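Hey Z.,

So I finally got round to the adenosine-5'-diphosphate thing we talked about over coffee. Here's the setup:
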Amino acid sequence: MHKTIIVSNRLPVDLKYIDNKLHVKSSSGGLATGMKSVHSEGNGIWIGWSGLAEDTMNSEQKNEVDQAIAQEKCVQVPLTEYDIDNYYYGFSNKALWPLFHYFQAYTEFEREHWESYVAVNQKFSEVILQHANDGDTIWVHDYQLLLLPELLRKKNPTLTIGFFLHIPYPSYELFRTCPWRYELLQGMLGADLIGFHTYDYVRHFLSSTSRIKEVEVNFNQISYNNRIIKVDSFPMGIDYNRYHNAALEHDTNPEHTKSELMKNIDLHNQSNEESKLILCIDRMDYTKGIPNRIKSFEYFLNKYPEFKGKVRLVMLAVPSRENVEQYQLLKRETDELVGRINGDLSTVSWTPVWYFYRSLPFNELIDLYVSSDIAMVTPIRDGMNLVAKEYIATRTKDTGVLILSEMAGAAKEMHEALIVNPNNFDQTADNIKAALEMPKEEQKRRLDALQKRISRYDVERWATEFLKSLEAAKNNKPPQAAT
Ligand code: ADP
Ligand code: G6P
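And the result:
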């Protein structure tokens, strides 16, 4: 019986030593939270990086880490400090991440980073090949591992290889600026099936491939090296029932599941029953549009001053990639903006922006989702955005409004949200007002449609459809080989 191996840079658990004690916490980010339920239902393993540097640990710690990871049905690819600096922070997060999100000015192309990216993709392939048997399926995820499909195919052509990109795929004009564009495409083309969140990303990929590699593209199939590679869109869903049921449980026992964070907000709010809460949850990343969101909230309060004292923005940001300068600058900018706006507008009984920079456990996240009247998900650019879907899943009382950026992949499926351009403050302010004043019947009508779609296309269905399509793609032969 063949097995399926999931491979991604980030494992579903993130390990850290604090005061010589091992801490294991759930990873944040859409890939890890989404694939986690697919992994726990299946019988395969997940291969990836633990979050620790191999060369900073003693042998006792290495054993402890191996055991903790094995308990999660995972296997680790040990990375050194050098790998982490150059492959992870370097090429993955200073070159590919900004490039693929259209932040060209942030993109750094360094040969040393690239060489490390090649070497670490090689490391991944070696670990995978130790665990894979002939005929197994390898499902590779995301931009940190673009070279892996080809490396695996070269060593073992019997493997069925799928690749899914969790971030946007940029237009050809942007992608062509990468000095290693040819090698990156060559790496991806080792897969039997290449998946993206939206049809636009598929189109951009096909256009880059045909212009850079001069392969033959036929509708959504690429003929290359006597193989046919299928390219398709698979919009990723969430574990709908997990979020929905947790919210139902919260409804039956709200005090028991209340987070410290919400208790504080509630206490502060007791003086004003009417006050509404707008929630934002993101990794602290420049693609998420955090400063724009704060500025558009300020713009809203100045455009519609009758709402001052009646609405608060609760922003939860999870620390991310803190070694990269652009992330440090973003943190500073956010701190300053929140400080300035609260300084300018707060009264004795009202603080407009509540900002928390931390990761939260699942039940506390649910508490925040459930307690909010509106969610504002306004990235500048986002492959999909699962927070938008999680918020909808936690609406159990037919109330709640989602304000969603048209730049998120999720906007392609969530038409009933209030869709905004995050750079248009007037439009965003008007939509905040519309959300605050939306009649209950309209909230319900929009939520019904969204919930129906998101519960049907959940993460399990997404994974099943990808794997089914991968199985079919594996048996594809180019026309000339078939005759
Ligand atoms: P990305 O993958 O770019 O981080 P997504 O919105 O697709 O963006 O996924 C983010 C995931 O991380 C969601 O599942 C969300 O619940 C989780 N998350 C975001 N912020 C926090 C936080 N502060 N604490 C815990 N989990 C978080
Ligand atoms: C996004 C990426 C993932 C990544 C996650 C968290 O969701 O698509 O590949 O794991 O962000 O980022 P990190 O760098 O902490 O893994």
